[in-house]
Amino acid sequence: MKFFLDTADLDEIREAASLGILDGVTTNPTLIRKAGARDFHEHIYQICELVEGDVSAEVTATDYEGMLREARELARIHERVVVKIPLIAEGIRAIKTLTEEGIRTNCTLCFSPTQALVAAKAGATYISPFAGRLDDVSSDGMRVIEQVVKIYRNYGFKTRVLAASLRHPMHVLEAALMGADVATMPFGVMMQLLKHPLTDVGLERFLKDWEAYLQAKQGVQTA
Ligand code: E4P
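That is the input. Now the predicted structure with erythose-4-phosphate docked in place:
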């Protein structure tokens, strides 16, 4: 399973990359705004230079021609850029054309398995079902991801399932159990994944015992 960071914050990306477990980054207009990016294209370029993996950058046009124009510009920024296109009719048309041009796409704002089926038929590189936002409206977000994984396996679609809008480690665990190809998550969730209180307690005890062992050994040598 690949781990992507869902952020446009350069410091967070730098820190996650330094752990050696970062496979890519997803951004969206909200995250770009939050990061206070001065120049969108320049910011995406900087992210691409920090991570050895795919970096999703989203179009904001909602018409076919506009999406194609923005997508081609975004794809020129860096070879790692994957263009995020919303799952609307014009977006599906754009994905089909961009795929034929060799531009990789991440079909975003997916909330149902049938939407995901359409995106795969258009040739999207990634599909992003948003689990957390479905949970927010009392739907079962992870169930949708499970269904998407199953449908893609049934037909051998190459589109990769990018579990998105993950809000806590249990979302990541469930996505991994379901066989999602990628989990994109906020920096805090990625850090939570490696935490366990028993690890901290265990380490503290080992270090104390090691210290006691060294002192006892020194006592024997000086006696
Ligand atoms: C994915 O690509 C989206 O940027 C993201 O996962 C949305 O998450 P949110 O619902 O927490 O905003």
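DSSP finds eleven helices and eight strands in the chain.
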